[in-house]
Design goal:
The protein is an alpha/beta fold. The chain is 32% helix and 20% strand. It is built from five helices and six strands, in the order E-H-E-H-E-H-E-H-E-H-E. Strands 3-2-4-1-5-6 form a six-stranded mixed β-sheet, sandwiched between helices. The mean pLDDT is 92. This is Phosphohistidine phosphatase. Pfam families: His_Phos_1. InterPro entries: His_Pase_superF_clade-1, His_PPase_superfam.
Length: 170
């Protein structure tokens, strides 16, 4: 793996109190921002070979909207892979799932807080706020180095509210 993109799902809805947490869908803002972030990644030449998502509805919807926005720019290498373990995982689970996908050149993984902030903090040594639809972009060093923390280097952290996404709106 050369590039790892870690994304928090887009903004979700709390309108239906009868839904379980993993069944909450994206709200209107989430449905608008997710494809814009996909178009942004494509504009940075960061279309992933593989998209791996939590099984939670809001994460899967985010993955589908991202993939659709990037598909017009470049062909994705595979379908979206849903991984149960990315629903509220520990940092050690994140690391294991990342290691399982090292054969791809560029991977986008979509999950949830607090796990994403904990993972990014473990890698960088600093607290990094990861609001909805934020993406942390890491370069990945060679396998010869021992720990994932030593192999990952934060290259960029994109938060939707800090980007001008207007050029990607239809």
């Amino acid at each position: 793996m050369e590039t790892l993109l870690i994304m928090r799902h887009a903004k979700s809805s709390w309108d239906n109190a009868t839904l379980s947490d993993d069944q909450r869908p994206l709200n209107k803002r989430g449905k608008r921002v997710a494809p814009l972030m996909g178009a942004f990644l494509a504009s940075q030449n960061l279309v992933p070979d593989r998209i791996v998502s939590s099984t939670a509805k809001r994460a899967h919807q985010t993955a589908k909207l991202m993939a659709a926005a990037m598909a017009s720019k470049e062909t994705l290498g595979s379908e979206i892979e849903l991984v149960d373990e990315l629903y509220l995982p520990s940092t050690s689970t994140w690391k294991r799932v990342i290691a399982e996908h090292e054969s791809a050149s560029r991977v986008l993984m979509i999950g949830h807080n607090p796990g994403i902030e904990e993972l990014v903090s473990a890698v960088t040594g600093d607290y990094e706020r990861m609001p909805t639809a934020a993406i942390a972009c890491f370069s990945v060093g060679p396998d010869s180095e021992s720990s994932l923390e030593r192999r990952l280097k934060l290259q960029a952290l994109w938060r939707p509210k800090e980007l001008d996404l207007s050029e990607f709106e239809a």
